[in-house]
Amino acid sequence: MKKGFSLIMAIFFVILIATLGMMSMSLSSKMVKQSSDIYLKEQAELYAMSATSLAVLDMQGTDYSKDCLTEKAYDFGDGFTAGVSIFYLDSNMPATCNARHKTVGSQINIRDMGLKDASGNDATFYNVAILDVIVTNTDGIEPIRYHRRTVQRPWRLV
Predict the structure, then answer these.
(1) 127: alpha, beta or left, given left = phi > 0 and alpha = psi -120 to 50?
(2) Which helix (H) or strand (E) covers residue 106, if one does?
(3) How far apart are CA 69 and CA 142, in angstroms?
C-alpha cells in the first residue's frame, strides 16, 4: 500500500508542476501582448499630436480668401495614417468653410449659434478651429484606432 500511495503522490506532484507551468506561460504571453499594445497606443498618441501640429501648420499656410482647408490626411510610412477634420469656429470665416458640417437641410452657421462669452456678450472666436484627428494602423496583429479632438488657435487663419 505504501508503494501505491507514493505513485499517486508523484502523479499529483507532476500535475501540480505542469499546471503552474501552464499558468506562468499564459501570464507571460498576456504581458507580452499588453506591452506591445501599450507601445502601439503610445505611438498612435504621438502621431496624433504630430498630425495636429502638421494640420495647424497647413492651416497657417492656407489662403482662406480662395479656399478652405477642411480635411487633411497624413501617412507616416510605418502603417500609421492620420486623418484630420477641421471645423472652424471663427465668425469671420466664409460660410463655405464649414459647408461639409450639415444638419438636415441646412449648414451650421456660427453666427446663429448664440454663443456667449463669460460676460454674456456675443462671442466672436477669431482664428479658432476644432481639429478631429483619427490615427489608424492596420499593419499589426490587432488594428489600432486612436481619436484626438483639440481646439487650436493658429497664428493666422484669415
Answers:
(1) left
(2) strand 106-107
(3) 32
Q: By CB neighbour count within 10 A (0-12 exposed, 13-18 middle, 19+ buried), where does 154 fall?
A: middle
Q: How many angstroms separate the CA atoms of 38 and 24, rounded?
A: 21
* Cβ neighbour number for residue 110 with a 10 Å cutoff: 20
48 close to 146: Cβ distance less than 8 angstroms:
yes
Q: Report the run of H or E that residue 134 belongs to, with start and end.
A: strand 129-137
Q: Please give the average per-residue pLDDT across 28-51, as a whole number.
A: 87
60-75 pLDDT per residue, tens: 888 777 778 889 999 9
Q: Whole-angstrom Cα distance, residue 138 to residue 153?
A: 32
Residue type, 113: M
- What is the pLDDT averaged over residues 38-43? 89
Share of the chain above pLDDT 90, in %: 27
- On average, the pLDDT of the chain sits at 80
Q: Give the mean model confidence (pLDDT) for residues 11-37.
A: 87
Q: Which of 23, 34, 93, 26 minimizes the C-alpha distance to 59?
A: 93
